[in-house]
Amino acid sequence: MLSVIEKMIFLKSVSFFREMTVNHLKTLASVCEEMLFPEETTILSEGDPGGTLYMIVSGRVSIEQTNAVRQSLRLNLLESRGHFGEDTLFDNSPSPTSAITLQDTLTLQISHQPLALLMQQYPGIALHFLQTLSKRMQAIDEQIADLSRAHSRPMHKVYDKLDF
Amino acid sequence: MTNLLSNLFNIRRDEWRRFSVASLMVFSSIFGLVWAENTLRASFVVAIGNEYIPFIFIGDAIIIVISFAFYSFFADRFSNASILITAKLGAAVMALVGLGLKQVASPLITYSFLYYLLRSSSEIVSNHWGTYLADYYDTLALKRIFPALAVVLRLTAMTSALTLPLINSVAEQNVILLVWCFTLVVNGTAAIAMPYIAGPPTTTMDRPAERSQKRASYLENMRNGFSFVSESGFLRAFSFMSIMMMLVLAMLNIEISKFLKESYANDETAIANYTAHVTVIGGLVMLPFQMFVFSRIVSRLGVGRTNLIFPTLTAILSGVFLGFSSRLLAGLMYFNNTSLNVDIRSTNDELLYNAVPLRVRGRTRAFISGIVEPIGTLLGGGILLLSFIYNSPALTGLIVGFGILYIVSAALVTRRYSHALISLLKNENYSLILDAGTDLVLDSAALNYLKTQLDNNQDDDAKIFLARIICEAAGTDAIPIMNDLLTNGSSAVRAGVIDILVNANIRGRDLEATYSVLIHDDDPDVRKAALVGLAHILGFNNRAYQAQALTLLADPDVSVQAHALPGLLIAEEQPQRSRAIASLKNLLSSEDPQIRELGIQAVTETKSPIYARLLAHALTDEADNVQLAAIEGLQKIGPSIATNPETQSDVLKHLPSLVQTETSANIRVLAVRILEWLTDAQPLLVDALSDQNPRVRNTAVETISRIGKPAVGIVEPVLHAENIQLQKMATVALAQIQQSQYERLIDNYARANLKDIYTNYARLDALSALPEHPSLDILRSTIREHNHELRDEIFYMLSAIHSGDTMKIIVEALNSGDPRSIANATEALDSLVAAQISNLLPPLFDQQHTDSDLAEIGQKHLALTSPAPDQVIRDLLSDDQIPWARLITFFVLGEIGATLRQASTQQNWQALLADEPETKNNGQLFTLDEIRVMLRVAANDPQHHIRVAARAAHRLIDGKDIVRAAHEASEQVLSLVERIIFLKGIPFFWNMTIKQLATLASVCEEKLYPEDSVIFEQGVPGGTLYVVVSGRVGIERQSQSSTASARLRTVEDRAYFGESTLFDNSRTTTSAIAVVDTFTMHLHHAPLVELMQEYPDISLELLKVMSHHIRVSTDQLAELSHRSENRAKNVLSKLD
Q1: What is the pTM of this model?
Q2: Do A144 and B1120 touch (CB under 8 A)?
Q3: What is the mean pLDDT of residues B667-681?
Q4: Mean of pLDDT values over A90-118
Q5: Does position B1123 have pLDDT exceeding 50, yes or no?
Q6: B203 pLDDT more than 70
Q7: Angle formed by the axes of helices B2-9 and B139-170, to 10°?
Q8: Would the pLDDT of B85 be above 50?
Q9: Is residue B926 a contact partner of residue B895, using CB atoms and an 8 Å limit?
Q10: What number does CATH give the domain A4-122?
């Protein structure tokens, strides 16, 4: 349904791929798959094998996680240009969250295998991903820092000594 | 018992169940078949007149075509099991009908009906059998199973044939036919039961795809089959061979039948008994052959060559039989045409089908069995019919002639078999799909869509991006849109769009006008681009263009001047040219290397050999970039250097030093390429062959093979050089020019590599007995990596004599882990190289094999010994082949020594108390003194790294603290090995090879930070990864409000920090303080990125690790904010 060109344009608007060159995007677009999910469908369940990046072309997806008391906690609400699954894309680990559609949703998917082959041929793509993930890590570290407690430095030294 | 049978028949233990059911099916099928066939054929031959015997076979052929129409309708459309079941049960029903016919109709009609029923059902089943089994076994397993099943078949046939004369003497024919019917039912039932007894089919790869397609008619299937066959050289040869085979056999069978009829005077029971007897005797002979010999013949000779056995035998026997007719010879011929035909030819044909892709196998087989083979029979029958009618015995001499043709066609099939296997691998190989690519195509709706996007988007980047897509796809239709952008867009857009238009090769009058205006644009980039655009439309030689360019020679921007030069430098008219040359001289004598580079690039653009001398002079420029530009330019002008002797001599003056001493690999590579056109300098290629950078070496090989024959004289002497690496590269290069001459040599090197590889595995096995030390781990990894390189080198060498693509596909298949691909790749390798090489290569890819498994294989095939651990260590101390091995081994001695010293300190006290002398422990490799002696050798080694390693080893043995050592030393404290060990401790680098880690380690730096000193402040540019060797570092973050800082974590020995800015060079978000005296090792961004460019695998590993980190951190974040649902949501949504 989506032509290669439309895929390319869409990909460029996703934050993940914002700085990619046209050639890289074209090759990426050729390995993307389109999938349409009807309303109220589970795209991904917690614990399912990962390895796929999903990008939302149109529609609405809720990202959820079950907590200790089996309640479903909504972590995030994604709309057009949102993406999920990138945290399991590279190491194929099981998905920590589930994704459920709230409306009819059209997604573009990239899986690990074709992406890995692509990165062998164009190392630049891998570098780009590394930088994106790196920024993400920094952002999370910042958030963690914000939520941790702040002390003056001499106090830290005291705590250090007490650790023994 | 099962073990014995397993070994005899070459069957694995887990396969017995399936094998049993399959055997039952074979037994019941063959039993009934032998009884029925002998009986019915004899009766048919008797019932029909002598001259009409050929009609039996002609009718055969026609019936087969018709049955195949039915078969192929179902072939790939229904499951293999259901086809088999239907065929069997259907035949049983028809057999009963035939029995009924016997009571009411004439013998001719009855026996022709029954006989053709028998033939058609048995043909369908025997052809389908292979496809059916392939659901349960892969290629390699089939290679073993088929001969084993053939043994079962043999035994059954013998039993059945033995009992036939007995039954004939006590019961009448109807009983025999009823038994046949019964066996068909048993067979069908067994096929129904197979999934329940033996598990469901294992390979259902292509089933779903087939099911989703619409049903095709018989004609379409035949057409498909025909197109598959006609497209494949292998299948064409196979078809021709099949026609010859059927033709020859039909003719021979007719002759045999005629002979028997006359010899036994029309007694049908006697004839049936005779053929039964031949079957029994033949079976007794074939049984041991099958049980022990056949599968081993196939393993030894390969499927392709085994193919030649049957045609040869048939030709020889037919000559003898036709020459001297006798019952014995008739029996022998009959034996050949039935037993040998099935046991050798048919079995081997099944294996040949393995080279046909699974998804088309059914239809191909149907086509060959249903149309091709019957054609053969028809031809054979027809030819003999003519000879009978015109009663010319000379035509039977034709049989021998066709026999020879049969042999020739079989030879052709043998040759094409390996090609077929390789293209099979190619088709099932995923990576080639990526190369297929997609081409952009636009219709007017899409164009409008893009236009709206263009208008709506304000972003320059996006506009340029969209413009590119539009141009690439719409071509000249895009001009109006582009013109619009060129007049109204920003300067970036204007420059970018011209760029795009030139690249998309779009020209037009309107554009010319626009460009002429843009030449005087305010923005220099736009002016440059406009020049390029005009050159693209008008060409350098065009007067109008040159006039325009002239105006820009005095442009304030230097790069614009440079762009104006090329066209003018080759102008015919004088004022233009001399002004251009003056301008060029200006550029080339500038102080700024960037400007000189511009000048060089302008010269390159002229593509004219006249200015090549300038390029040659520039080779000696002191600036790297100018050198690179000059050499790139020379390479582009390339071939014309060869024709211009002056340029040649200039280049020759400067090139040699570049090839030999220039530090940048890129420049060396280009220099080597230029050698292609400098005949006098070609001996330099030899130097390049032993360059340390593999890219340079490979370029040298490529250049040599491009030069071709003339280079042989230069390279040949190198074959006797001392450096083995050099010898190998030279051989590869020569083999690409004259394959047949150097094939032997390459074979030898491959074997030598294999010997080295397996020797190393024996060493690894010995080393595994030693207690664990980190450096020992590294040593083993190094040896293993070296083995991988040797292995890859083998394939590199082999691709000089077989195609490079073929080798690439084989390696990918062997690496894939998929048993089917591996089996096919091994077959392919088998048919290309010597047995010893093809036996020893696949185990090297098997992940399941341990070091001792491989060492065992080495012992078995190469008669290698298993060395003792201390001998291995001594060997490695002087081994120059394995990179870093000596270095690491010296350090290993240090670690071993350290352990010894700790143990001996204890021992010494005990010995002192017990008054005993110091002795060597059991299991101890060396004494402390022996180690000290070995280390002394290293202390004066010419290589810096080895001396450092020896010092480090001493440090370990003496038990010195590293921080103290750092205080005392003024030079490098950490040896390369220790650095590697530290780097390895970081998850990012877990899966890097030792070689890569060594490269990184060699550019790491060390520093000692006193207590309370700041390693880096928050907010400074990052890009460095630190590893704490010894000490303690606090990572802190200053909150925005006060001077208080949050301690995020504390980093201790062997842990690391700074990684989050390593990849993107961003500013640090934390600060790092040394809490106590801390000794660190650090790695910077630039060398890491260089490494990643050269080894993309590293990036993939790093991505994996980072994903893991992010996940862990996200969890931590969720924990910290678990109190409130909303808080978590807020935090996470901020991250997008």
Answers
A1: 0.60
A2: yes
A3: 81
A4: 86
A5: no
A6: no
A7: 100
A8: yes
A9: no
A10: 2.60.120.10
Option in B430, B468, B1106 nearest A137 (CB) = B1106
Q: pLDDT > 70: what percent of chain B? A: 88
The domain limits of chain A are 4-122
Reading the block at residue B884, the tokens are 């870093």
Would you tell me which residues 471-510 of chain B have a C-beta closer than 8 angstroms to some C-beta of chain A?
473
B979 or B214, greater pLDDT: B979
Which band of pLDDT confidence, cut at 50, 70 and 90, is reported for residue B764?
very high
Question: How big is the CA angle at B298 (ends B123 and B146), to the nearest 5 degrees?
Answer: 40
Among residues B228, B242, B207, the alpha carbon closest in space to that of B364 is found at B228
Chain A residue with CA closest to B1059: the answer is A134
Other C-beta atoms lying within 10 Å of the C-beta of residue B81 = 16
Calculate the CA B595 to chain-centre distance: 46
**Cβ contact B434:A27 at 8 Å:** yes
Q: What is the Cα–Cα distance from B568 to B547, expressed in whole angstroms?
A: 9
- In this complex, is the C-beta atom of B1125 within 8 Å of any C-beta atom belonging to chain A? yes
pLDDT of residue B269: 83
- Which residues does B591 contact at the CB level (< 8 Å), separation at least 6? none
Round to the nearest angstrom and report the end-to-end CA distance of chain B: 66
State the Cα–Cα distance between residues B1018 and B1037, nearest whole angstrom: 7
The two three-digit tokens of residue B797, written as one number: 């060498």
CA distance B815 to chain A (A): 14
The CA-atom distances, in angstroms, between B314 and each of B318, B319, B417 are: 6, 9, 22
- Please give the ipTM for the structure prediction: 0.81
The per-residue pLDDT for B11 is 66
Measure the CA angle with vertex B944, ends B939 and B947; round to 5°: 20
Output phi, psi for B1099, to 5 deg.
Answer: -60, -40
Distance from CA of A27 to the nearest CA of B (A): 7
Residue B133 has pLDDT above 70, yes or no: yes
Say if B1131 is an interface residue toward chain A (CB within 8 Å): yes
Which of the residue ranges B206-220, B268-282, B1108-1122 would you say has the lowest mean pLDDT? B206-220
Q: Which two tokens mark A104?
A: 């009819």
Token code pair at residue B405:
């043709």
